[in-house]
């Protein structure tokens, strides 16, 4: 049957019908007063979502573009940066800092494990000469389904005085990221995750402390020069041609999010996290990340006795449900269930039911039929 694809991956995520309808409108002039009103509304609502009074800037870029912009606008060649790496995306930001000639120091742990805040504290306290200019951390590591303790790490960074830069691509909109309360200086995210719209927009929140660093930063930049975006944003416009129809989408999505309310959004994602993990345990399949560090956006599973790629293949061909695979050395070893953005209790129950049927088709019999659904339903009904 056509047009029944169900996305249960960590991005792109499902898009609500009213957002699709908004995006289908004819574009208007991006220098018009009408578009300026949309920019103003979207910017204000982005500040609400970020729980910040800081600037939140909008780029025609992916989350990677937003993160690169967040790195290069506030540093100079040769600056020392501390990058936490415990998955694909932490490693990516270290590759970005290497590419720009920064002195990159990695604080690494095995994939599937959370970053150790104590390691950050010790390293920062040992930096008595204040040579470390920025600390870069991925909040929700998309590749492994691990959420890192950004709040605690940021408190150590604040005590040190370095800039706190955070990749919140799969955490913003899925869990609380109170930018001002946590003293986050640079916060990057992308539209195709918790924001519930297609790929194409990147967002960067910037603190007053980061803007001070911007004044003396020497890394090359032009299209990604956030100073240009700041000046334009103050006039409810953009420095370059924006993705007009994605602004329509963002306007509609943020209105939906405000109607649901922050606490309800976060509670829904936490409920889905708990339900997904309970279901996987009931199916006697190992979770890749421990309960205490499982992301509210993605649940990674390392199946025993059945191939992860076979599971994904049957789910896609038989049920038209897309699950994500493993990356790099985890390819073929794990599959990932995305449950962020426009995902409901019904969606998760549907995915778990299809997963049970898939496992039975593949000859995996280490569970009682219905156990996964029962476990997920119990979490949902008790929440």
From TrEMBL:
* Domain of life of the source: Bacteria
Q: Which residues carry this modification: N6-(pyridoxal phosphate)lysine?
A: 193
> For substrate, which residues are the binding ones?
336
SUPFAM superfamilies in the record, alphabetically?
A: PLP-dependent transferases
Domain Aminotransferase class V: start-end pairs: 10-327
Q: Which cofactor does it need?
A: pyridoxal 5'-phosphate
UniProt-listed Gene3D superfamilies: Aspartate Aminotransferase, domain 1, Type I PLP-dependent aspartate aminotransferase-like (Major domain)
Listed GO MF terms: alanine-glyoxylate transaminase activity; L-serine-pyruvate transaminase activity
| A UniProt-annotated Pfam family | Aminotran_5
Keywords, ordered alphabetically:
Aminotransferase, Pyridoxal phosphate, Transferase
Q: Name one GO biological process term.
A: glycine biosynthetic process, by transamination of glyoxylate
Family to which this protein belongs: Belongs to the class-V pyridoxal-phosphate-dependent aminotransferase family.
This chain's protein is named Small subunit of soluble hydrogenase
Per the UniProt entry, what species is this protein from, by scientific name? Leptolyngbya boryana NIES-2135
Species lineage: Bacteria, Bacillati, Cyanobacteriota, Cyanophyceae, Leptolyngbyales
């Amino acid at each position: 049957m056509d047009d029944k694809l169900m996305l249960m991956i960590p991005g792109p995520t499902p898009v609500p019908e009213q957002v699709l309808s908004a995006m289908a409108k004819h574009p208007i002039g991006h220098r018009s007063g009408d578009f300026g009103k949309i920019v103003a509304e979207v910017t204000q609502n982005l500040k609400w979502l970020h729980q910040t009074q800081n600037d939140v800037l909008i780029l025609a870029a992916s989350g990677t573009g937003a993160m690169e912009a967040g790195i290069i606008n506030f540093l100079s060649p040769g600056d020392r940066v501390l990058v936490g790496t415990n998955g694909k995306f932490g490693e990516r930001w270290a590759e970005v800092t290497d590419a720009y000639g920064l002195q990159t120091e990695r604080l690494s742990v095995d994939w599937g494990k959370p970053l150790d805040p104590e390691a950050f504290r010790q390293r920062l306290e040992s930096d008595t000469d204040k040579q470390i200019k920025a600390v870069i951390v991925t909040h929700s590591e998309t590749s492994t389904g691990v959420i890192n303790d950004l709040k605690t790490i940021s408190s150590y960074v604040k005590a040190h005085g370095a800039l706190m830069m955070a990749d919140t691509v799969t955490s913003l909109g899925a869990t609380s990221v109170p930018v001002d309360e946590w003293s986050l200086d640079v916060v990057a995210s992308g539209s195709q995750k918790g924001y519930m719209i297609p790929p194409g927009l990147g967002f960067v929140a910037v603190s007053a402390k980061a803007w001070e660093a911007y004044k003396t930063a020497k890394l090359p930049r032009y299209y990604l020069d956030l100073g240009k975006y700041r000046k334009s944003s103050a006039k409810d416009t953009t420095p370059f041609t924006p993705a007009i129809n994605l602004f329509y989408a963002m306007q509609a999505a943020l209105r939906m999010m405000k109607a649901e309310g922050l606490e309800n959004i976060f509670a829904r994602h936490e409920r889905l996290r708990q339900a997904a993990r309970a279901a996987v345990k009931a199916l006697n399949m190992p979770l890749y990340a421990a309960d205490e560090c499982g992301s509210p956006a993605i649940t990674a599973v390392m199946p025993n006795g059945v191939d992860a790629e076979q599971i994904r293949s049957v789910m896609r061909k038989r049920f038209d449900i897309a699950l994500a695979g493993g990356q790099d050395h985890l390819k073929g070893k794990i599959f990932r269930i995305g449950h962020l953005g426009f995902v409901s209790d019904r969606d998760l129950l549907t995915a778990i039911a299809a997963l049970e049927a898939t496992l039975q088709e593949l000859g995996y019999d280490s569970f009682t039929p219905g156990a996964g659904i029962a476990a997920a339903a119990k979490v949902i009904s008790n929440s």
